[in-house]
Each structure stands twice: as C-alpha cells, then as structure tokens.
Write a structure and sequence with these properties.
Blueprint (H helix, E strand, L loop, with lengths): L9 E3 L4 H5 L2 H14 L13 E8 L2 E7 L13 E3 L4 E3 L28 H10 L1
C-alpha cells in the first residue's frame, strides 16, 4: 500500500545531496514544510512552485526554474541507443552488436558514453525548458 498526497513539492538538482540539504535556502524551504505539516501552522510553502528544478550548463553552473508539474507536460521523449565502439549515444538502432568492457576492480577504469550537442541544439534545449 502506498501513501499519496495531492500536496507535493519536488526539487531536482545535480548537487551533492547533503551539502544541498543544509544550504540556508534549502533549510528555509524545509522549515516551511514542517511548520505546515507537523505543527499545523501557516507557512509560505503554499507559495512555492510544485516543481523546482536545476538546469545545468556544466558543473557548478546552472539555474533553478519553477514548474507546475512532473514530468513536464512539454517533455519530448526520444529513443537513443548506446553504441559501444564509438562510445556514443546515437539516434538510430545499431545494425551490429558491439561490446565494451572495463575492469570493475581497477580504481580508475570506466566506460563512458557521450551525447554531443550542436550549438543550435543547446540553444533550443535551454530555451524550451
């Protein structure tokens, strides 16, 4: 049996969890939540957006945006495929089976898959969010 509520707020970020939780702005939002739902007191939580998400440009650089639903109604789902030989995330289903490996016991070994964006794609993505 699950627990559900119509009163929900979601925060999406790519920061270190414990550091983010204890930032003054995060503590303020948590206190507003506790005032309303644990103490039954009025708080500013009702003025908060239902979704607060961070859109990252790169590490340590991004901006928070307010949204009203999750997933976003304007989300466009697109299938992508992993291609092991090139290490890329591609648009079409590969015609051949490819394999990549890494040593899971080695400290710095890994497998990376990349999705490269053109400047035009970056511009569209940033302005659609």
């Amino acid at each position: 049996m699950g627990i559900s509520s119509k009163q929900k707020w979601r925060e999406i970020h790519a920061r270190k969890e414990w550091r983010y939780v204890f930032e003054p702005e995060s503590v303020k939002r948590q206190e507003a939540f506790f005032l309303k739902f644990l103490k039954g007191e009025r708080s500013e939580i009702d003025t908060y957006p239902k979704v607060r998400m961070e859109v990252r440009d790169r590490a340590w650089l991004g901006e928070f945006r307010s949204e009203q639903e999750w997933p976003l109604a304007r989300t466009k789902y697109v299938k992508k495929y992993l291609e092991a030989t090139s290490g890329k995330l591609i648009d079409i289903l590969p015609t051949e089976l490819t394999v990549t490996r890494y040593d899971s016991e080695a400290k710095d070994d890994c497998v990376l898959f990349c999705r490269e964006f053109t400047d035009a794609q970056r511009f569209r993505i940033l302005h659609q969010l």
